[in-house]
Each structure stands twice: as structure tokens, then as C-alpha cells.
Specification:
Rossmann fold, 16 strands, single chain, Quinone Oxidoreductase, Chain A, domain 1, binds NADP nicotinamide-adenine-dinucleotide phosphate, about 325 residues, 2 domains
């Protein structure tokens, strides 16, 4: 009997109306692959970029890059996973919005028993992103306890993990968010200061909070609306990690601006460079699991949608109606 899987696909780039549930056959894993049966699937803003075609992929496209479940079958050469293991991942290629799939094993890791499938599905892509941002995307000289950093969209999925992780590192994270309620949530989760960037001038507020000095690093996933102003929040030699485009792509940069604003550094990182090898993925995942199982980072799942309601999940994410993580349930 051929196994099948209900899977969310798009046949054309566009709005949430392009998301369709189809039934696809699922085969056996080849060398270096596993078949996983999902218990839950994570929703990420990158799924929106892929749906609209901002990040283009071949069509038809199965969406989704994060999930958790049980290993059903293991291909040749896969030594770190066995049938029956609880597992979770953030991984290319997309295709996690489904019941089961065959996928490369190198980004799939065992999920500790203390972490639920829902948490595993919610936290892998977002948590590994915070891991590489705060631990490895640092300004010259590094970051130490007491240092100020600015983190945009601090009440979102990545944002609330970052607030808690920064607090654990002793950093003073200044978090921006789009409402007073979201700011209160970011504070509760570890931001030392918050700014409602819909009603306040965040450059002026950052200057005020840091006594005119500015921050050592800005982590900016909002993109077009914030990028240039973010540069004005940095102290000399500061670093901006521009790692997302929730408000649109950052326009081309005249690099002379970096000299004029104080010998600044710009990085445009992506998680997928960091998790390019199995060893590195496991090392980062171990760090993330340690933060979660110790209780220093709690994974807030504020929205849950059945797989069939994925279009509503996309609408809510794009409309800035969500906080923390969102998952699709199966
Ligand atoms: N490069 C990487 O490795 C990497 C990895 C993971 C995530 N990311 C990026 O990190 C960001 C956060 O991802 P996430 O999945 O956790 O999403 P999220 O933060 O839960 O949702 C995005 C948030 O961005 C803010 N935003 C500001 N302007 C917006 C606009 N015009 N439209 C929509 N949202 C806007 C909203 O918060 P407010 O209402 O508070 O402004 C919104 O809730 C995304 O940009 C994502 O692409 C990058």
C-alpha cells in the first residue's frame, strides 16, 4: 500500500488563497534521508516570503521549514536516528506543512523527552536563529553582561526567545514591538527596555536609554521600515545583523554610509549557512535544548491552527496579529 500525506502546496506565488491541501504519495527514504511522521509543524515568516515568491522556489511548492514528530523509516548511511525516535528540525528544502515526509537527515535531531512535540515544532527554526544571532553574530570584541543590544519585533516568535536568551546572557535587550501589549509581553519575557515603534521614535528612545552612547548590536528582521534608522542606533564600530524582511526588502545600501555613521559592520546572515553540517546543527541544537530544559527559555505557543486552516495562520502572521510562536496541529 502506498503511503500518502495531506500536504499544503502552492501552485502559484501569491496571497494566502494560494495555499491548498493536497494528498501526495510518500515513498521510502533514500541514502542520507529519513521519513518523519509529524505531530506538529512550525509556522515561520520565511514561509510567507516563499509563498509570495520574495524567496523564489520551483513550483508546485510544498511549504514549511520546521516540524517535530517520530522517525518512521531511516535511509542508508543515517547513524544518528532510528525508527521510533522523537525528532525535530529546521531544514531546507521546504515541505513541513504535511503529515509525513521524506527529507534529508542531516538537520534532523533527536528531541529530548522533556520537550513536547508542540514545543519542538515551534522552536527549532526560531530558537536556532536566536542561538546563532546572540552567540555568533556579535560585534567586534564580543558581547558581555551589561551590554545594550536592540532587537526589533521582540514580541514575535524569534523575538520572545531572544528576550529570554539575552536576559540569560546578562545583556540589556531593548525590544521594539508594534503595540503597548506586545511591549509588556517582551518586558515580561526578559527585555530590559521596550519601545512601541508605531508610536515612538525608536532612535531617540535608544539614545535616551543608552545615555546617548547607542547600542553595540542591532538585530533587525523588520527590514525596509527600520534598516536605515537602526544604523543610527549603533555606537561606533557597532554591528547590524539584518536577517529578515517582514516589512519588505532592505533597499540597496550605499556602503559609504557605514563610514559616515561610525565605521559600522553589516551582516546579512541566514540560519541555513549555520546549519549546513550535521555536526554544527547538533552543537547548536544542544545549546538550544539546554536553554529550554533548564527553564531559562520558555517556548510560548500563542497560536495553534489545524493544518487545514493554514491560510488563516498566514493572514494572522502577516497582519501582525500574533505573538510568540504559531504551530499547525495534525
Ligand atoms: N535570516 C534568518 O536566519 C532568519 C531565521 C528566522 C527568522 N528570520 C526572520 O525573523 C523575523 C521573525 O520571524 P518569526 O517567524 O518569528 O515572525 P514574527 O516575529 O512572529 O512575526 C513578524 C513580526 O514582525 C513585525 N513586523 C514589523 N513590520 C511588519 C510588517 N510590515 N508586516 C508584518 N510584520 C511586521 C510584527 O511585530 P510587531 O507588530 O511587534 O512589529 C510581526 O509580528 C522574520 O522577518 C523572519 O523572516 C530570519
Amino acid at each position: 500500500m502506498t503511503l500518502t500525506s495531506r500536504t499544503v502546496q502552492i501552485a502559484a506565488f501569491g496571497g494566502p488563497e494560494q495555499l491548498h491541501l493536497v494528498e501526495l504519495p510518500v515513498g521510502e527514504p533514500g541514502p542520507g534521508e529519513v521519513r518523519i511522521r509529524h505531530h506538529a509543524v512550525g509556522l515561520n515568516f520565511i514561509d510567507v516570503y516563499q509563498r509570495t515568491g520574495l524567496y523564489p522556489n520551483a513550483l508546485p511548492l510544498s511549504l514549511g521549514m520546521e516540524g517535530a514528530g517520530v522517525i518512521e523509516a531511516v535511509g542508508e548511511g543515517v547513524a544518528h536516528l532510528a525508527v521510533g525516535d522523537r525528532a525535530a528540525y529546521a531544514s531546507n528544502p521546504p515541505g513541513s506543512y504535511c503529515e509525513r515526509r521524506v527529507m534529508p537527515a542531516k538537520c534532523v535531531v533527536k528531541l529530548p523527552d522533556a520537550i513536547s512535540f508542540d514545543e519542538g515544532a515551534a522552536m527549532m527554526l526560531k530558537g536556532l536563529t536566536v542561538q546563532y544571532l546572540l552567540r555568533r553574530t556579535q560585534p567586534q570584541g564580543g558581547l558581555k553582561a551589561g551590554d545594550f543590544v536592540l532587537f526589533h519585533a521582540a514580541a514575535g516568535g524569534v523575538g520572545l526567545i531572544a528576550c529570554q536568551w539575552a536576559r540569560a546572557m546578562g545583556l540589556q535587550l531593548i525590544g521594539t514591538a508594534g503595540s503597548d501589549e506586545k511591549c509588556a509581553l517582551a518586558s515580561e519575557m526578559g527585555a530590559s527596555h521596550t519601545i512601541n515603534y508605531r508610536t515612538e521614535d525608536f532612535v531617540a528612545r535608544v539614545k535616551e536609554i543608552t545615555g546617548g552612547v547607542g547600542v553595540k548590536a542591532v538585530y533587525d528582521s523588520v527590514g525596509a521600515d527600520t534598516f536605515m534608522k537602526s544604523l543610527d542606533c549603533l555606537q561606533p564600530f557597532g554591528l547590524i545583523a539584518t536577517y529578515g524582511n517582514a516589512s519588505g526588502k532592505v533597499p540597496p545600501l550605499d556602503i559609504g554610509v557605514l563610514a559616515a555613521k561610525g565605521s559600522l559592520y553589516v551582516s546579512r546572515p541566514t540560519l541555513f549557512t549555520h546549519i549546513a553540517t550535521r555536526e554544527r546543527t547538533q552543537e547548536m541544537a544542544d545549546d538550544l535544548f539546554g536553554m529550554v530544559t533548564s527553564g531559562m527559555v520558555k517556548i510560548r505557543i500563542d497560536q495553534r491552527y489545524p493544518l487545514a486552516e493554514v491560510a488563516q495562520a498566514h493572514r494572522d502572521l502577516e497582519a501582525r496579529n500574533t505573538t510568540g510562536c504559531s504551530i499547525l496541529t495534525l
